[in-house]
Amino acid sequence: MAASVSISMKSLVALSNNGGAEPFSSCGEARLLLGSCPAGNDNTESLAMMKVFLRNRETGQFYTGPNRWNGNSSVAHDFDAVEIAATFARTERLAGLDVVVRDNSGLDLILPLREHA
To answer: pTM for the whole thing?
Structure first.
């Protein structure tokens, strides 16, 4: 998706839930994708209220801490930013993950992390 295309968060969620989400390989790609989502009156303020989780693509469990995973997102570690979650996953060499961005209304945007060799 091009960053210049303005798409609502609901449209992005629909794409991701129908298998249309493309993995991103850099923090810059994720930032551009999220920056293209209008989120009310103040995009920056709305982005700050979002929660960012890592989710195992196979099991559906959320990262909760060192070597800990849980199926309940309410106990998941909130990374505060997509960049932080993506960098953490790569540094820890965690594979098969999605970054889940939950907005303040409870809608999830799922961003598959691209695997690196």
So the answer is: 0.62
